[in-house]
Amino acid sequence: MQTSSDRHEYPAHWEADVVLRDGGTARVRPITVDDADRLVSFYEQVSDESKYYRFFAPYPRLSAKDVHRFTHHDFVDRVGLAATVGGEFIATVRYDRISADGRPASAPADEAEVAFLVQDAHQGRGVASALLEHIAAVARERGIRRFAAEVLPANNKMIKVFTDAGYTQKRSFEDGVVRLEFDLEPTDRSLAVQRAREQRAEARSVRRLLVPGSVAVVGVGRTPGGVGRSVLDNIRDAGFTGGLYAVNKAFPEGQKELDGVPAYRSVRDIEGPVDLAVVAVPVAHVPQVVTECGEHGVQGLVVVTAGYAESGPEGRERQRELVRHARTYGMRIIGPNAFGVINTAADVRLNASLAPEMPRPGRIGLFAQSGAIGIALLSRLHRRGGGVTGVTGVSTFVSSGNRADVSGNDVLQYWYDDPDTDVALMYLESIGNPRKFTRLARRTAAAKPLVVVQGAGSAPQGHAVRVTRLPHATVSALLRQAGVIRVETITELVDTGLLLARQPLPGGARVAIVGNSESLGLLTYDACLSEGLRPLAPLDLTTAATAADFHRALSDALADEACDAVVVTAIPAVGEGPAEDAALAEALRSAAETVPGKPVLVVHVELGGLAAALSAATSTAPRAVSRREDSQRSEERPPSAVQASEGVGLIPAYPAAERAVRALAEAVKYAQWRREAVDPGRVPEYEDIDEKGAAGLIGGLLARGQGLTLGVDETCELLGMYGVDVHRALPAPTPDAAAEATRTLGYPVALKATAPHLRHRADLGGVRLDLADEEQLRRAYAELGELFGRPEELRPVVQRMAPRGVDTVVRAVIDPAAGAVLSFGLAGAASQLLGDTAHRLIPVTDREAGSLVRSIRTAPLLFGWRGSTPVDTPALEELLLRVSRLVDDHPEVVAVTLEPVVVAALGLSVLGASVRLAPPPVRDDLGPRTLPVY
After folding, report:
1. CA angle at residue 368 from 363 to 369, to 5 degrees?
2. pTM to 2 decimals?
3. Rounded to whole angstroms, how far apart are CA atoms 822 and 812?
4. Measured between alpha carbons, how far is 418 from 210 in angstroms, rounded to an integer?
5. How far apart are alpha carbons 330 and 275 in whole angstroms?
6. Is 638 exposed, middle or buried (0-12, 13-18, 19+ CB in 10 A)?
7. Beta bridge partner(s), residue 279
8. Contact present, 374 and 366 (Cβ < 8 Å)
9. Which of 136, 192, 264, 509 is the most buried (most CB within 10 A)?
10. What stretch of H or E contains 811?
11. pLDDT at 573 (0 to 100)
């Protein structure tokens, strides 16, 4: 640690774990005086060429003066960071603040020289790029706005690190040296580069876990049974294509194999490399296993051992130490308390889980935090019979258990460009980093459907997450805005996944209904109306309809340009057998081929052998579909599927109309989101915004304390810098003071009581409007006193009258979990009592501002409902955009409330405003890449 002579304490918040380009991890931390020996050892392992590139001359060893200079920092003007693996340095970076003439300097100088040195064995892993992100964030925190670097022309790798970073830069060549200068303010390009690197690195880190070349199961019992032995048997029986090893320190000396699998007493004894280790030993022995795996070069761990955070505070600390221990060696962890991982790819065939049977290969990726839900999903997807055909199988499956390290965000990064996954299904009991999840979900959903069930309660034991202050419904709405198909139950998860996996997206909400049951058709029609779809009148073919009749009706419906999707309802006729059922399945399949661009769904009542026919139609097919059941008796049977020929989608079949229609409605909403996502709008620039002035004001105000609610004058000044004009309310502690204030404002005015129990409660009589002269003002003042008490209890103010209009409320808040959120609703009962408030994630685009205004249920009041005058919604949208900009530009602004905002036919008036400031978070989702710490 640093000595007492240092100007600043050790900045522990700069410590971070990062994922490198190859999927391995490293720890970034400040260099301290205790690192002298590590620095010398690190330097000795660097090649002479790399040393020459760093110091521009032969520099075989560091002098004592060098070691002192490179390990003693003040963490303000001189900062050094190291990337470590196994506790040893693999790379270093430092900056020194300089003046305009290049001499050592202190603030307010805002430029620094930066230099890197990467151990040759770790070059090409993206270490320098990760360190640049972190040292740049540190520099910005310390008031440095620009880096300068001098590099030899032959040092192409380091030049590329700087030029590829995406910052605005200037390049010059002088005295045989390339000089690079670049601003540290993030740009769209630098953020895009950072996000792309993050995606590649995290995807590869998950790939190392899902596509290993070799697997060791540690904790394999010598006799059948037990967790370790079960996992070993499952890997072997699935036909894993790589190397497989059984490990148990209790194996007798000389034992070479176990049921044909090579056996070892320790991972260290395995001669070849081990990519993945499944850890199934008692919790007390896990640290030793992690050490052995790390020293052997294992790339990742699946820890099925329990006894961690789910068991209480001691277990939580044990879990944190497990993650720290594994990351020391550059390993990532799935678990602990995990169910396992599965990859059905033909060239992998990995079932490193407790699932006794390998799921059929397919195009659906599954992620479940809960092992119980994972078991249920896999068993339903695999089971045959009863209408479950197994037609749509699994590409990959991850059960994260306590999610101490690898989370749903990491798996999303992998699925994003995984060619074997078309649809992603996730069961999330909690979201550890919702801001990042929302960002990743938006990008993933633009490429492939993402269907999520999220638990509504608190996080389960073992899942340490930031607690949101937003209602569950609000979080769900924000996820939907990011393209997430948010469903409520596991049944809906699989029903929707089935449809999206094998049917095209609908072009709209118009639904044709054809079938041989009038009542079932009407039930489907009503279900469509309930889900916001636009059903056409059902076509009843009567119970006498043949397979040919179904074929003709479905073909006609698909050919109709007024139809976007077709739901076929079918009940088997009495006396029909397997032959008739197979004919119907073939008729539907062949008709669907005629117009492959529209989705087709089947609703069937299993009175005969239709489900068996549907199952038989697919049982010999190369692909399979299956779905889950519900607890209600009408939904006890999972959906089935009708196999189409190669290149044509499967037709999903559901045992209940509401299940089919609900899945279709989700597909319709998702398709609409996809169309709108092509042009999400833009965040407009306003020339009258004074961003620098606002930053200076905020900095000065925060210097008073850690957090504060601004006074009236400060609130008006800050909002005014962003073009938000607040109608000032002047205090009126006495009738004479009210009259004097009114002379400043001019008549007519409003007199308001601002005591907490009366604020924004016009219904209680604490407001007097349209006071045209001093006589009316004094009379109103006396009335308020008679009704509510003394002036000091009322806190009366006077305010000039605003044009009449619709009272609305605009809020922005920094939620600890969801991030910056902009909210809008009508003032009063609509938002307070009925919860009629809409939300968008900040920054808001112009299109999102328009949809925000229109998405509340009471929006018609803004657009001329029942003959009223429409209000100025463009002005309202501009106000929303300006508030969004304020919060996005200044993370210190943690809460803004504008209430009421009176929107008139022309223009609007902000009659009340409050702003709260707090120090910005040390790291946020716009900062350098880091792995979370739960």
Report:
1. 160
2. 0.85
3. 4
4. 12
5. 12
6. buried
7. 218, 303
8. yes
9. 136
10. strand 806-815
11. 66
DSSP, res 310: G
Burial of 12 (0-12, 13-18, 19+ CB in 10 A): exposed
Exposed/middle/buried for residue 105 (C-beta within 10 Å: 0-12, 13-18, 19+) = middle
> For residue 605, which amino acid is it?
V
Residue pair 642/550 in contact by the 8 Å Cβ criterion: no
Q: Is 21 helix (H, G, I), strand (E, B) or coil?
A: coil
Indicate the helix (H) or strand (E) that contains 191. helix 188-210
**How far is Cα 112 from Cα 142, in angstroms, rounded to an integer?**
11
Torsion sign across C-alpha atoms 611, 614, 616, 621: negative
Rounded to the nearest 10 degrees, the angle between the axes of helix 371-382 and helix 490-502 is 50
Strand partners, 642: 651
727 to each of 773, 886, 897, 902, how far by Cα in Å? 19, 19, 14, 11
- What is the pLDDT averaged over residues 332-349? 95
Nearest 10 degrees: CA dihedral of 411, 218, 382, 242?
Answer: 80
Return the percentage of the chain with pLDDT > 90, whole number: 60
Residue 3 clears pLDDT 70, i.e. is over it? no
Which 3-state string (H, E, C) describes 830-877?
HHHCCCCEEEEECCCCHHHHHHHHHCCCCHHHHCCHHHCCCCCHHHHH
Interatomic CA distance for residues 733 and 790, integer angstroms: 9
Determine the residue type at 394.
Answer: V
Tokens for 248, please give them.
């148990």
In degrees and rounded to multiples of 5, residue 257 shows phi and psi of: -155, 165
Taking the C-alpha atoms of residue 305 and residue 480, their distance in angstroms, rounded to an integer, is 35
Dist. CA 241–CA 264, nearest whole Å? 20
d(CA 549, CA 547): 5
- Which residues, listed in sequence order, are joined to residue 302 by a DSSP beta bridge? 278, 334
The Cα 694–Cα 700 span in angstroms is: 10
What is the per-residue pLDDT across 648-700, written as a single tens digit (0 to 9) for each?
457 888 889 999 999 999 999 999 999 988 888 899 989 999 999 999 999 89
What is the distance between the alpha carbons of residues 328 and 332, in angstroms, rounded to a whole number? Answer: 10
Residue type, 17: D
Greatest extent of the chain over all pairs of C-alpha atoms, in Å: 106
Residues 518, 523, 529, CA angle at the centre, nearest 5°? 125
230 backbone dihedrals φ, ψ, rounded to 5°: -60, -45
Write out pLDDT tens, residues 138-181. 999 899 999 999 999 999 889 888 888 888 888 888 888 999 99
- Alpha carbons 812 and 807: distance in angstroms, whole number: 17
DSSP helix/strand/coil, 14: helix
Strands 214-218 and 177-183: unpaired
* Structural contact between residues 352 and 610, judged by C-beta atoms closer than 8 angstroms: no
Q: Which two tokens stand for residue 314?
A: 């001691």
Residue 46, amino acid: V
Q: What is the CA radius of gyration of the chain?
A: 33
Tokens 């009175």 belong to 607
- Output the DSSP codes for 867-905: GPPP--HHHHHHHHHHHHHHHHH-TTEEEEEEEEEEE-S
- Any idea what DSSP says for residue 12? G
Alpha-carbon distance of 480 to 486, in angstroms, equals 6
Cis peptide leading into residue 336 (ω within 30°) = yes
Closest by CA position to 342, among listed 302, 283, 295, 292: 302
In the block, residue with structure tokens 């489907």: 524
H or E stretch including 603? strand 600-604
Task: Place 839 in a pLDDT band, splitting at 50, 70 and 90.
Answer: very high
Cα–Cα distance between 375 and 359 in angstroms, integer? 11
Residue 110 has which token pair? 């805002």
pLDDT tens-digit readout, 375-404: 877 776 655 322 333 356 899 999 999 999
Task: Note the helical H segments in 56-126.
Answer: 64-71
Q: Which structure tokens are listed for 299?
A: 């790339």
Q: For residue 608, what are its two tokens? A: 């005969």
